[in-house]
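Quick illustration, no need to memorize.
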Amino acid sequence: MSSTDPGDAFVQREDKSVYETDQPVRYEVQDGIATLTMNRPGFNNAQNSQMTYALDAGFRRAVDDDAVKVIVLRGSGKHFSAGHDIGTPGRDINKSFERQGLWWDHTNKPGAEQLYAREQEVYLGMCRRWHDAPKPTIAMVQGACVAGGLMLAWVCDLIVASDDAFFQDPVVRMGIPGVEYFAHAHELNPRVAKEFLFLGERMKAERAYQMGMVNKVVPRDELEAATYDWARKIAQQPRLGLALTKTVINRVEELQGLRTTMDVAFGYHHFAHAHSQLLGAGALGGHDARSMVQANKKGETQA
């Protein structure tokens, strides 16, 4: 019996990705601290699925290791992360991976289901899981922390930033209401969150600190020492005490609406993708990596 569901009209999409490294995330452990280092400095640590799955494996490895008390997430090179990979040779949106959540493979799905299934897995699902990792996490942020980079920093319990770091979510320019892990109105007060999204400008580290989004700002040459000083101090605390404390505060965030906010925003996010595709502008509102970089440079200034 043939199906009448148009969603069963599966498609084939060619994977043209070419990776510049087979180690998109470096993993090290020392003094009870696991360090996950994003390792695509030539592309400002843009996140393709290869990197995202490697991060997921790194978080799992650190949680499973009884010698690890604290996890530090950092980026190699000049910038923490320029966000999702929308234009490098390693963009692997059409590649299948062994999935870590329960959503099905996205690569052969028609219509808006393709992006919806993919982003449930590699963006929203993974980020929520990392946010709930029972061990404390610290993001060490230098340079750019843009769009998808915000998601990686926001899932961490603490953020230590260099004084040259900046934060930005310019995706409203694509017709999309912010990145998938939508924590804007919880990391910032609602009026500042609107400013942040409506203008799409850079927020300097000092202002992010004043807003409570960043825990500490230090000179660039002191960033590593300051981050690992905190990590070593936290590593002296009891493992279960840390896990329970983190769990309580995370549940408070959920009671304040964090999870519901993300569910609502994710639905609108994919409505925006589908709307843009129906208008013939592609999923990104007619933009690509080059046009976004050019537009971002024009809108650099913010306090």
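The radius of gyration is 19 Å.
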